[in-house]
Each structure stands twice: as structure tokens, then as C-alpha cells.
Design a protein that fits this description.
Rossmann fold, Aminopeptidase, 6-stranded mixed beta sheet
Length: 504
């Protein structure tokens, strides 16, 4: 496989002044898979002139580790036509030349953190061949599970002072905030959420602070009105292909629910690729631009926690839920249950059997695939997942475990590619299994993209559903088993689970 690396990838890899540690994961995978790492002559020239190259000669010497393209592909008419519409300067022209190498088939992939370049690729139908670091990592970890190094990627809550402030993970924060070390030491007795790989390397850090309505917000423009808020004080996640960012978003929103805040906010810069990725992640989950922090020029993003916005998707509204929707019981086989819903592991299951080696276990939005004929399910509907029991003893071993909300319900796929784009990395099935599903069922299946809401505190068994006429004896629930609001409340009462903080 021939992989062309954009100029920005090389700069962030080789120049210590501009750090993006996700690139370390990228290059480890390129080496594992024995992919050729290619550099274009124009990129080499551009890097030699790069103003942060210090010294420029040292940077040029480092480029010898990459295989330079010996020839350049002739410009394709379609690429030239797009360039005439979109290119505005020399950097745009270089991007077009790199993109042309992919279009002409001289390289298999182009990896770039440039969103404009990826947008050009989409126009040319090359979106699957021009990838961000995170998109590449997601694909290769899914396709090569036996090469995954991480035994576990569990999120832990630890005292900040137990971490090493000089860990290279914090370098980008230190470069962005001159007082980072002093802040770190002041917060030594407070706690933060972290994630490590099995070699002890930090992959994620999250510090949260609850602020009351009397907090001083004079540095934020427009001025915040008085509210109880959750501040995302420090948040960094390396791109690993495991959707760790979504796992941390779940932690943020869980804390917001627990603290009963009115609003969540964050201030951050957008001057590095990983920060642009973070802004995109937050925006995907309903954070909106509010204003600026005057003293630093940082962007301020906010998310409302006490209001449901009908014009937004269930994902953007999450964790705010609508009550007046359809409600269903959805069965799932035991071998898939805890892999898809790791937060709802049963007491008799061994957690070591479900160590997080796959992206879907960390994804907050996941995919449930059904071949049932039911199609009348819509975004915002509520589902309760039901773990099938042991044949012959299902009455006592089959249990309701989790509440989720439907974000999308998709069917009538026009092609296998469209189908795969919705289910890869968010379902429990391998690519081979998904290929077989398409072969056997084609577009005659429905994909529910759902968001995990909460595990049931107590697990109602099938006997309970029979005794209360929710499910007719001796059957178990079928896919898309509708239940009434009254039956839903009976289940929540039996489960000793309160969802009142979610309803809007």
C-alpha cells in the first residue's frame, strides 16, 4: 500500500515545536502494516521553506526517512476543473497536485489534516482515499484487530497530582498555555479523568469544574447570564481510532446530569489540527459557538442542559430526551450484548472478556441491525435493550439491561457502500459478517443508530414481563416490541431507575 503524506503530517511528525501526538499512533500503524510512506517533491520544497523549521537543514535531513515520488502524474481534467473553481493560492495548488496523485492511481491513500483538501476529495469521489489521521486509524484498527496493542483502554478518575506534569502528552497544552504547569500544580489534589494504553502512555485527559450562578464571567463576551454551569476545564484526547472522544463526551454529559447544571461550556483555541477535531466532536454533540474569552481570544462553546430543541437531532439534544415518543423493547443475543453495551455488563460476566479492543465499544452512538419488517421507528424513540436468556430457563436468565434513544433509523440502502458506511465501527459485527448480511438481505434490513442513555439499576427478568402482561407467556420480546407509557413506567419502577432528569 502506497500512502502519500500531506505536508502538514510531515511537519507535525518532525518538528518538535508543532506537536500532534496522534501522529505517533499513525506512524506506528504505517510501520506495522508495512505501508510505503511517500512524500511529494512539492511538499519537500514547501517544508524546506517552512518558517518554523528550526533549523531548516535538520528538518530537510529528516525527510530522507520518506520515499520521495520519483515522477508526477499528469494533471487529470476533472482535477484541473475543480482546481480552477476552488484554488486561490500556491498552497491550494500543492494540495491539488497531491490529490491528483490519488486520482490517477499512483498512490493508494493520502493522509491529511487539511479539511479543505478532504472536501476537494469528496467532490471527486475520493473521500474514502483521502483521510484524516483519525479516520485512517479507525479503519485500520477495525480491519486489523489482531495487531491492536492495547489490552484495555479504560477511563479512570485519578488525582491530578499523581500524574507527571512533564509527560509529553501535556506538551501541546503547555505550549498553548504558558501557565499550564502552575495550573497543574494548583490542581494537584483535584481529580481528572484519564485514559492510558497498556504501555502506560496517556491517551486522554479531562478535567471538569462545577460553577455556581455567582461565578465571575467578566472575561467572556457576550457576558454569561447567571446559571449553574459545568466547565470543561482541560480536555485532550489523542486520535487512536477507538472513538475515545465520544467516551469522554459521555463522561461530560453524565457529570452535567449528576450536577444538575443548566449549561456546559468550554473555551479553546482552534490553531492546531487536534483542536479542530475536538471542536468538530463537540459540535457533533450539540455544542454551539457562543462567543470569545477576551483575555486569550479562545472560542467559547456552550451546550444547554435544560431544554429540548425540536430542530436539532436527538444526538445534538442528548442527554435531553422527549418523553412523548414511541417506546420499544429490543432483544439482543448474549454474545453481542456486553460488547455493544459495555456499561451494562452483568454481574455474572467477566469484565476481562470485554476489554475494549474495538471502536464500537467506545462509540457513544452505536448501530443495531435488524432484519425485521418493522420500519415505523423514528429518531427520538426510546428503546430498552433485552439480553436473551438461556434456552429452557429464559424466564429467570433473560433480562432488561439498558435504556437508549434512537438517533437515526435507516433502511432502503441504495448500495452496499452506503450500508457499510453506516454500520462499520459502530456495530458488533465484523466486516465479513456485514458483507454476508448484505449478500443475504440486501437493503431489506434496518439500521438503528442509537445512543446509550443509562443502565438499569436492577435488571427486570422475563418472568416480570410475563407476570405483568407486558410480554405474552411463553414468548420473549421480538425486535421492535412496542410498549405503552404505563408499561415503560412499570419497567423503570421494577428496575429502580429514575430517568426524570433526562425528560424535557
Amino acid at each position: 500500500m502506497r500512502v502519500l503524506l500531506d505536508t502538514n503530517i510531515i511537519i507535525y511528525r518532525e518538528n518538535k515545536k508543532m506537536t500532534n501526538y496522534s501522529i505517533g499512533h499513525l506512524f506506528r500503524w504505517l510501520d506495522k502494516l508495512k505501508y510505503d510512506k511517500l512524500i511529494h517533491p512539492l511538499s519537500k520544497k514547501e517544508i524546506a521553506e517552512y518558517k518554523y523549521a528550526d533549523p531548516a537543514e535538520a528538518m530537510t535531513l529528516k525527510l530522507d526517512a520518506y520515499q520521495e515520488l520519483k515522477t508526477q502524474a499528469p494533471m487529470a481534467e476533472s482535477v484541473a476543473s475543480l482546481a480552477a473553481q476552488m484554488d486561490k493560492n500556491e498552497n491550494d495548488h500543492i494540495d491539488t497536485v497531491l490529490l491528483n496523485e490519488v486520482y490517477q492511481g499512483r498512490v493508494d491513500l493520502l493522509i491529511t489534516e487539511d479539511k479543505r483538501l478532504r472536501r476537494k476529495a469528496e467532490f471527486l469521489g475520493l473521500g474514502h482515499k483521502v483521510l484524516s489521521i483519525n479516520a485512517f486509524l479507525t479503519i485500520v484498527t477495525n480491519e486489523n484487530p489482531t495487531l491492536i496493542e492495547y489490552k484495555a483502554l479504560a477511563v479512570q478518575k485519578v488525582p491530578i497530582g499523581s500524574l507527571d506534569v512533564n509527560n509529553e502528552f501535556f506538551d501541546s497544552l503547555r505550549n498553548a498555555y504558558g501557565n499550564f504547569d502552575a495550573w497543574f500544580n494548583r490542581k494537584c489534589d483535584e481529580e481528572a479523568y484519564i485514559c492510558r494504553d497498556d504501555r502506560g502512555h496517556l491517551l486522554g485527559f479531562l478535567y471538569l469544574k462545577t460553577e455556581n450562578s455567582d461565578e465571575n464571567y467578566s472575561d467572556i463576551l457576550p457576558l454569561f447570564p447567571p446559571k449553574k454551569r459545568l466547565k470543561i476545564g482541560t480536555f485532550k484526547v489523542d486520535a487512536t481510532g477507538f472513538r475515545l472522544g465520544e467516551r469522554f463526551i459521555k463522561i461530560i454529559l453524565d457529570n452535567a446530569i449528576e450536577q444538575r447544571v443548566d449549561e456546559v461550556y468550554v473555551t479553546l483555541f482552534e490553531n492546531r489540527p487536534e483542536l479542530e477535531t475536538l471542536v468538530a466532536l463537540l459540535s457533533r454533540w450539540g455544542f454551539e459557538h457562543y462567543g470569545v474569552k477576551k483575555s486569550t481570544g479562545e472560542k467559547v462553546l456552550t451546550k444547554q442542559m435544560k431544554q429540548y430543541f425540536p430542530d436539532l437531532s436527538p444526538r445534538e439534544n442528548f442527554p435531553n430526551l422527549k418523553y412523548d415518543v414511541q417506546k420499544f423493547i429490543m432483544p439482543i443475543r448474549p454474545q453481542y450484548h456486553t460488547s455493544l453495551l459495555p456499561d451494562s455488563i452483568l454481574r455474572n460476566e467477566n469484565e476481562n472478556d470485554f476489554l475494549a479492543k474495538t471502536p464500537y465499544r467506545y462509540a457513544l452512538q452505536k448501530a443495531y441491525i435488524s432484519f425485521a419488517l418493522e420500519r415505523n421507528i423514528y429518531p427520538g424513540d426510546i428503546v430498552i435493550f433485552y439480553r436473551n436468556g438461556v434456552p429452557g430457563n429464559a424466564g429467570h436468565t433473560a433480562v432488561l439491561t439498558s435504556v437508549a434513544v434512537v438517533d437515526e433509523a435507516i433502511s432502503n440502502f441504495s448500495s452496499k457502500e452506503e450500508y457499510m458506511s453506516h454500520v462499520q465501527n459502530r456495530s458488533v459485527f465484523t466486516n465479513d459478517e456485514l458483507e454476508q448480511f448484505w449478500k443475504n438481505h440486501g437493503s431489506n434490513q434496518i439500521v438503528l443508530k442509537f445512543i446509550f442513555v443509562k443502565s438499569l439499576a436492577k435488571r427486570p427478568i422475563l418472568n416480570f414481563l410475563w407476570d405483568n402482561d407486558i410480554i405474552a407467556f411463553p414468548n420473549g420480546p421480538r425486535p421492535f416490541t412496542r410498549i405503552t407509557d404505563n408499561q415503560f413506567e412499570m419497567i423503570l419502577t421494577e428496575a429502580q431507575t429514575d430517568l426524570s432528569r433526562y425528560w424535557r
